[in-house]
Amino acid sequence: MITNQIHLLRPKSGAGGSPIDGVSCLSWRFGVETNNVIGWTTIPEECEGYIGHYMLGSEYRKDSEVVTNEALLYAKSLNLSNHGKNVWVFDVDETTLSNLPYYAEHVFGVEPYNSTLFNEWVSKGNAPALPESLKLYNEILSLGIKVVFLTGRTENQRAVSETNLKSVGYHTWEKLILKGASFSGKTAEEYKSAQRKELVNAGYRIAGNIGDQWSDLLGTYTGDRTFKLPDPMYYIS
Ligand SMILES: [Mg+2]
Questions:
Q1: In angstroms, what is the span from residue 212 Cα to ligand 1's centroid?
Q2: Which domains does the chain have, with CATH numbers?
């Protein structure tokens, strides 16, 4: 008998609900998604099974759908003057495109990020769309809002990124902004803030902004509203 029990839902559970000593993987993921757990390079080793099941199971998709549904409700509520300069900023990796096939082979973030292997995967141009984001993308376009992709992928990945985006259904965009050499050494937050400032200076109104990293959504010129997609696999500052 437990007195003063609040909830006993999935206490410290890992894969298949098996208990894990010490780390509550759900609490850790919650800390990540709320930007309380920051600056990490790998997920807790004990949470590989938990994060793997989360990402490959239905919960990741359901969590994504809550975000994109809210984004769409918000977009539909806007009374935008139709001057052709309203844009929605989409991040690319783990937002428009999913690298889950890669991360499933690399233990869901337990291994430290390996740029050589990850760039090999990117160069194949085989990343599927995150279905919830593709749906949002199409609905945003139908509302007359233009799409800007703003990604930490580098300029030398432009061609493969364009091909990959088109092959999975992202058929048009106003701009695809990739990280140029002048931003090497800058954080994602600095780089993305600077690029969004350029958009605003060019007369665009950033009606919405969606990404899987807080560095997509914090900083300056963040847009009228931001939407955080789930990503418990890696952290980019
Ligand atoms: Mg991303």
A1: 5
A2: 15-228 (3.40.50.1000)
